[in-house]
Amino acid sequence: MTETVIAADANGEIEPKRDRLVIVASSLGTVFEWYDFFVYGILAALLGRLFFPSDNATAATLASLAAFGAGFGVRPLGAILFGYFGDKIGRKYTFLVTITLMGGATAAIGFLPTYSSAGLWAPALLVFMRLLQGLALGGEYGGAAIYVAEHAPQNKRGQYTSWIQVSVAGGFLLSVIMVLGCRTALSPQDFDSWGWRIPFVASLLMLAISLYIRMKLNESPVFRAMKAAGTTSKNPLVDSWREPGNKGRILTALFGVAAGLTVVYYTSQFGTLYFLKDTARLPEADVLLYMMVGVVIAAPFYVLFGALSDRIGRKKLLLAGYALTAVSVFPIFHMMANAANPALERATLSSPVRLELPPCDFSVFAPKQETTCGKALAYLAKRGVSYQKIQPYSPGEVALTVGKTRITGFDDKAYAAALIAAGYPDKADPNEKQPWKIILAVALMVGLSAMTYGQVAAILVEMFPARIRYTSMSIPYHIGSGYFGGFLPLISQYIVVRTGDAYAGLWYTVVVVIMAFLVSLFFLPENSGKPLDEDI
Fold it and tell me: In which order are the strands placed within the sheet that holds 399-402?
């Protein structure tokens, strides 16, 4: 009798009160976990100055982003660890552990000493906390997605699980609101001194709320049925590799699904954030406000596209999103720049910058550039100025040409004067910017993310057998998102520094998306609505 009830439930009986609790509990926990991760990303530049001492702003930011990437780098380990327990002991208890670990590590960052008071212990402890965050996040997404999917009716699985994706956007939105609120309430000096700790410590309250709600949940019906029948995996990690056909599914999930949708998502969030701040030269408060409004406008599309995937299929929608991203990401960012800082766009066209460079050992991680060419590159990168690298007219000589003005060697004051004279603004002119156009560009990028991300939980859950589902979907998802997505800010900014083109970092997104399109086109099956309690 019990098995019959469970099977019917797993196949899609709608219980409104239960379903609402499942969606709210899973989504709210995901909101809080991603809030924790995004707070660090938004404050990366400030944390770079506080924990990674350097008189080179670019190097400090990149070092901080490297720590951000470190949190993503261990996510596959978290997927292996918590995927094992999720398939072995259950979905519910596993993601109770992950959210506790994430919330505790995030709150701890708010109490850490900075470099000025603790020396090298400060960055070491910060990176350690980032690693704990990444480990926890490696187990959270798979658990939440599977838990919701295994409760959802077959014909509404995309719609139900799309709330998990909305909650990721919600985590970003909540982090923006918190940081922006603290910056508004405090003076710049107070925020940089101690106010930055508030968003991190606030995660303790969010952790308490999430744990309270999640404790009310029962185990998923599919897992209960497997447990009762004695068909759970004895070693989910080993079985994931031995299951016939599963290696191919894991590789498809990695390169065709996780890698592609993740770079689209992080381009829409962190790529946009850093571009508006560093290249378009907008004040951070303005950037956060535009990002917040753009995300609010476009976030409902996650649910819309999730529900649409129930009707037309997941694969078609995913491929369409990839194709649109590949052809539109450059135009959207150009529109964004033109709306945020028209003077910079005009100056780039009317007075192009050329930098004569001998062979240069410039390193973005160096605390201080010692060579003339390194100093010139660091200066232009900090200013967000695009430039063309050319061979020096005189061997070994470094020279900057702005329009008709040529400056030999490196002199930051002379560089600044030449750029300003040529129309390159140090900051965006508030009278020229077009907020509605900036918000539209942000919303378009978030919309592209929704088109590729809205149905991803349903795609991944439907790809793998129930007894090894947690492990099999978590590993490729977190390798893809951890390495392809987590290091996107670092890689894209590195490309910009090395090429001199403020838009060049977007090629990383385009190349990964094209790869994902081709893999999905040829290898991704259409499994929309398949029973989740059956083997593949």
Answer: 388-390, 353-356, 399-402, 405-408
Query: Hey, what's the torsion of the CAs at 203, 204, 210, 216, to 10 degrees?
Result: 170
How many other β-carbons are positioned within 10 Å of the β-carbon of residue 253?
28
* Cα(94)–Cα(92) distance, integer angstroms: 5
Cβ contacts of 121 within 8 Å, gap of 6 or more: 113
Q: Return the SS3 of 188.
A: helix
Q: Which two structure tokens, joined as six digits, stand for 5?
A: 């009830």
Which segments of 371-436 are extended strands (E)? 388-390, 399-402, 405-408
Residue 335 has pLDDT above 90, yes or no: yes
The 10s digit of each residue's pLDDT in 482-525 is 788 877 877 887 787 778 888 888 999 999 999 999 999 999 99
Report d(CA 242, CA 473) in Å as an integer.
Answer: 15
CA distance 216 to 528: 30
Structure tokens at 43: 């404050």
Cβ–Cβ contacts within 10 Å for residue 370, how many?
A: 8
Going by C-alpha positions, the residue among 305, 241, 260, 312 that lies closest to residue 519 is 260
Q: Using alpha carbons only, how large is the chain's radius of gyration in Å?
A: 24
Average pLDDT value for residue range 97-110 = 88
pLDDT for res 59? 53
Exposed (0-12), middle (13-18) or buried (19+): which is 427, by Cβ within 10 Å?
A: exposed
- The secondary element (H helix, E strand) that includes residue 111 is none
The string of pLDDT tens digits covering residues 450-480 is: 999 989 989 999 999 888 888 898 899 988 8
Report the DSSP beta bridge partners of residue 399: 356, 408
pTM: 0.83
Is-contact 411 398, C-beta < 8 A? no
Residue 253 is classified by DSSP as I
d(CA 232, CA 437): 53
DSSP secondary structure string for all residues of 487-534: THHHHHHHHHHHH--TTTTHHHHHHHHHHHHHHHHHH----TT--TTS
Token look-up 């910009």 returns 496
pLDDT band at 248 (very low <50, low <70, confident <90, very high): very high
> For the range 125-130, what are the long-range contacts, defined as Cβ-Cβ under 8 Å and sequence gap of 24 or more?
126/47, 126/51, 126/67, 127/67, 127/70, 129/105, 130/40, 130/67, 130/68, 130/70, 130/71, 130/105
The more confident residue out of 380 and 182 is 182
Q: How far apart are CA 458 and CA 440, in angstroms?
A: 28
